[in-house]
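User: Structure please.
Assistant: Input sequence and predicted structure:
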Amino acid sequence: MGKLVTFREIVTRYEAGENAFDLTVEKWVRIREDLESALSLSEFWEILEAASIKVPLCLEYKDNCAMCPLWALCGKGQEGSFGKFIRAIQAYCIAGDLLPKSRVLALADQLISELKASKKESLKRLS
């Protein structure tokens, strides 16, 4: 397994000036890469923990989640890609590699794609 992003790493890099969207995409790319090689229950639990780590935009919008550009993907009560991924990876934490990875890999790909689209949309609004 590769190196999953930690909350400390996210905060440190964000405070050093790295782009919040880029850090969020990187977090999910690393998760996607680790899913490829994950076989044991402990590896799936590590991925679930990494997926649950807050992203830089959570720090920016901590008191106003509904204003966050990622609200539709991960906001409480939203049926976004994040929630779908979390539910799928929880199943892997129970069943391990007995389940085909294609579904959870596809959900990770969808989430990464939607994050990139959100970044583009936010940049468009700023210009």
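The CA atoms of residues 17 and 110 lie 27 Å apart.
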